[in-house]
Amino acid sequence: MSGHQKAAADPYFPDNGDLRYRVHRYELDLDYRPGPNRLAGTARISAIAGRAPLGEFQLNLADFRIGRIRVDGRAAHYTHRGGRLRVRPAKALPAGKAFTVEVHYSGNPKPVNSPWGSLGWEELTDGALVASQPVGAPSWYPCNDRPADKAAYQISVTTPSAYQVVVGGKLLTRTTKSSTTTWLYEQAAPTPSYLVGLSIGKYQTALLGDPGLGGIPQTGHFPAHLLTDFSRDFARQPQMMTLFQDLFGPYPFGEYAVVVADEELDVPVEAQGLSLFGTNHVDGARGSERLVAHELAHQWFGNSVTIADWRHIWLNEGLAKYAEWLWSERSGGRMAHELAAVAHRSLAGRPQDLKLADPGRKLMFDDRLYERGGLAVHAVRCALGDVAFFKMLRAWATLHRGGVVTTQMFAAHVERHADRPLDELFQAWLYEGRLPQLPS
User: Fold this and answer.
1) What pLDDT is stored for residue 10 in this prediction?
2) For the chain, N or C: smaller number of CB within 10 Å?
3) Which residues pair with 271 in a beta bridge?
4) Residue 93's beta-bridge partner residues?
5) Residue 47's closest CA among 14, 23, 17, 13?
6) How many CA within 13 A on the CB side of residue 281?
7) Separation of alpha carbons 391 and 409, rounded Å
8) What is the reported pTM?
9) DSSP per-residue letters across 23-49
10) What is the pLDDT of residue 2?
């Protein structure tokens, strides 16, 4: 792979993803045993070669034992080192050709190391959890691991019958044979690899609200002892769903599930059609309600409308942060301008070296990115006025539903809803480190 292609793949993670092809669909057939933490899998990947013939291509996959690899049914040569699986088909694939890769693999899944600790497949005390953002997906299946390469997924997981398997998407079938159960899920919406969520555990399940005819089914999966607290903490999620559909347009997926793993998690994590929380986010006093709103908002901003590469992460986090403020404002809490003032005061006393539109790998999950991202969105609201702002926001989520976006596209989109040029606003909020004045 040429250095040029690597650099273009993702400036923050040049080893992840391959621009020379794109994936249309993943079919994963997995067997997981929690005791020995053993995973055996077959991945069938339907892909399309890019503009040049494909003599070789790369998938990202952590340290598993490879059984065999076939391209269009024929054995292929491969090397597997440092999380990269390089595949050389028996015959080069012509430009634009649809092809299928089949990878058989097995081993003990473990998280991949990253500057933010371990990512991806995590073995829990009793079960497992996958939270891959940004580069943890290869910890459990071979993938073209870049956010812009979105694909449909069908995932089958076989595990001992005492466990429940939750995957983002529609549960098609659940089949029990003697002591194991196979769960088959389908996620038809275009999904980036980092947003394929999975949880295996012993959960109680509850329906949140009554979706009614044509509504969005919302389910909660949680340890039985948290039933009362969970019910209280997530009681207002159906109202959030109603509000966000009103503000951002129709919910982009077929269903929404939340899982509370039976252990503490640093932060909740969004996945496609699914959000993962820890026991520490459930207190029976709605102490983490803003996070419930934040993760739900990601279904529009980040999941349906996905960033082209990680430089643009503020688009995910700034809009989800602003959704927290909108929920507060519309549900009897503090107004967005009050929360903006609090965020601004907090940022004013901290280092001014964060450039929102390209924070660099080190700062992409910095608290300041979330707060300043929310403030940048608030600055846009103040500049446009409420009528144009909410029209702009809804149009952004609707026009790019299922698509891929950049900061430049967002700025151009906002300009179309403004009655004056906003270059100075974007320059100050997105491209300079110094914190601009509080917007009003």
Assistant:
1) 84
2) C
3) 274
4) 54
5) 23
6) 27
7) 16
8) 0.96
9) EEEEEEEEEEETTTTEEEEEEEEEEEE
10) 38
CA distance 304 to 72: 31
- C-beta separation of 161 from 238 below 8 A: no
Across-strand partners of 274? 257, 271
Q: Residue 438 carries which DSSP code?
A: P
User: Beta partners for 167?
Assistant: 198
CB 333 within 8 A of CB 367: no
Residues in the chain: 440
Burial class of residue 5, CB neighbours in 10 A (0-12, 13-18, 19+):
middle
The answer to whether the beta carbons of residues 199 and 276 sit under 8 Å apart is yes
What are the structure tokens assigned to 419, written together?
A: 């009655």
Q: What is the pLDDT of residues 346-356, one digit of tens each?
A: 999 999 999 99
CA pair distance 257, 243, nearest whole angstrom: 18
Among 111, 195, 118, 123, CA closest to 159: 123
Say if residue 219 is exposed, middle or buried (CB neighbours under 10 Å; 0-12, 13-18, 19+): middle
Using DSSP, state whether 256 is helix, strand or coil: strand
Measured on CA atoms in the order 48, 182, 118, 272, is the torsion positive or negative? positive
Alpha-carbon span 112 to 135, nearest angstrom: 8
Residue 66 — pLDDT band, cuts 50, 70, 90? very high
